Amino acid sequence: AGSLYVSEYFSQSAQKLSFYSWYGNAKLFQFRVPEDTVLLRWLLQASRGKGPECTNMEITVHFRYGAPPVINPLGTRFPANATVRPSYNISITLSSAVQNTTFVNVTTPAAGDWFIAAHLPEAAGRIEVKGFSTPCPYMFQADMFVLRLTDMPVLEPGVAMPQTVVSPAKPLHVKVFVPKHAAGMQFELRSCVTSEQKACAMRVVLGSITLPQSFQRIVTCTGSVNCSLALDSPPWEKWLQIMVESLGAANASLSVEMLASFTACRPGSTSSFLNFSSLNQSQTGPRPGSTGAAGSSALSTGEASRNASDQRSFCLQNQPVVREDLDVVSVRYRLLNSPSVPVNSLSPTLLLLNLNTGMDSGGSLVVSLLLNKTSVSLANATVVACVSAASPVLSLNATQNCSTAFFQGYPLSVSTSSAEAMLIVLYPQTDDWFLSLQLICPKGQGECNAVEAKVTVFAYLTPCFNDCGPYGQCSLLRRHGYLYAGCSCKAGWGGWSCTDDTKAQSVGAQNLATLLLTLSNLMFLPAIAVAVYRYYLVEASVYTYTMFFSTFYHACDQPGVAVMCIMDYDTLQYCDFLGSVVSIWVTILCMSRVKKILKYVLFILGTLLIAMSLQLDRRGVWNMMGPCLFALVIMIAAWVYHGVKRRHCYPSSWKRWVFYLLPGITLAFIAISVYAFMETNENYYYTHSIWHVLVACSVAFLLPPRDKHKKPWAWSQKLTCRYQICQNDREELYAVT
């Protein structure tokens, strides 16, 4: 009977792509590949808008099994001690065609989570005002098609199973379950017979494909000789897929006998039972983020030494580890017995770091080792460690290459000359992770038999290593129900954890930027003085409010060390935006010279509407342009009314136009041009300071002169209240006649 295949199709909604400046700009897709999948096909669809602003674009798509891809499109540096392996990626070009469809095939993929990340090239860095320009939409959608074998034969360990490969076009798929504590696996093909009575020729593939690196074991068998393949440390408690392909004639079938056998590893433990009372004891080790202060425990003099013959009977020594969940993508691993781990040369010491919940792959796994120098009597002895996924490395003393059957681990070592070591695994794949430690002596293991080292192990999972440092912000990102973290850097710093200072601003440059952006608001003082001198006290109050909150908002908004926040950042930003728009609103209404009661009603009503619109969309261009245009309409209507009533141009004085209005309007237009079209991330601190200066100066020029019948500020005149009332009556009579 032929094999039964079932096809399944998985789709996710399209996402709008962004230009890349940090990991949050990459759009992530997560798919779950089912067990017994023999073929995986990605359908990648990219499209763009049809407007003139849309140009040819190259989209980069990254693939990874088990965790989000670790990418570096900007070529920045990673933190020290971080392990980085290049991601598998392809490029999709959108040229003349509006849409591009690409297929990516993966045969015998590993079951579990697969991730795709897509992004556009590096961001230009220009600050675009929302509403002034319409960016081209670039959309990307990933769909997954899988072909699954429903009746895959199961190979039982130690039992020979005859199978038939029908033809080269139909390879044979079988699977075998790898038990826990399997130190090795032996796979053997024997008694091969072809239908044409010719020599057997077949290709055997053990394992599944994982990206970016695949460790499939492939062997070609020819002739009638038995064919075998040995695996060291196969993945524990997982199904191992085996594919056999015939390399013979098109119509020829072959029959073969398969046999899989495992070598068991007998684990030993430092204690015969778990001391559950120690679960409630407080952890004396350092908190996450303070690995440099990790302490070590000295070797107890009263501790009984182990029997060497007992140690030889075990191939590893288990250390009980408790997983303590602290927060989202935040886990601490606590050793029950003590922070220090005894390490000897006879068998590796093993620690299990559980990262198989499906929600742990979006952070960074940090493993720190500290050797207690007093516990090692041999000066030249070294403790070699290896961090690996799926299965531990059990032969550190023999190979020291830190690799298992299908995974290349991460090596570590500590010695009396270098007692500290740290490893950072960025986005660790979802699996059981293992830390293996063993004592190595350069002159042979016999020298180390009576020696035991004490190593303090500190391991934790954190969203961002070192919380992105002083020049970065750790952001929790989300794709549907999956959470992962990324660093957003500032002050010119870059890199995965904001540790790359290639383009970093110096402290002097940061102080200069803060001073420019804050002190440039003092240019509102002339505008405030002019407003007070001309009796525009409400306008002067608005300008004072704007100057105050703009100053302290920019003092709080600065990256790096030159920062001062007098209140919540969001409150400062809202007050700054509100003051800026209301200042423009009251200035234009003041220029319109409408009746005072109408002017103040418009002041209050406009301020309330502006406050509402800013709450809806703080960065929308119409929050500023709308009040400006409406106030300009009121001003032009009032000026036309005054001109028709007086039968000459309003304002009537040419000096008013030449020395006040035209310079003020010119400064305002230059300010708007700088604000809308010239600001970038690099020049923001001086272009935005220019905006502050130009707007404040334009206000001082545009404010109208005081009423003709109002005297300048003179305190002696302010004491004669009756005279002021009489003068007001005369003003009204004069206006009527």
UniProtKB/TrEMBL annotation:
Keyword Transferase (UniProt): no
Keywords carried by this UniProt record: Cell membrane, Disulfide bond, EGF-like domain, Membrane, Transmembrane, Transmembrane helix
Annotated localization: Cell membrane
Major localisation: membrane
Cysteines paired by S-S bonds: 464-474, 489-498
Name under which the protein is recorded: TMM8A factor
Pfam families associated with the record: DUF3522
GO cellular component: plasma membrane
Regions that span the bilayer: 512-536, 597-616, 622-641, 657-678, 684-703
Disordered: annotated span: 280-302
Domain EGF-like per the UniProt entry, residue ranges: 460-499
Organism superkingdom: Eukaryota
Family: Belongs to the TMEM8 family.
UniProt topology in membrane: Multi-pass membrane protein
Organism per entry: Thalassarche chlororhynchos (Atlantic yellow-nosed albatross)
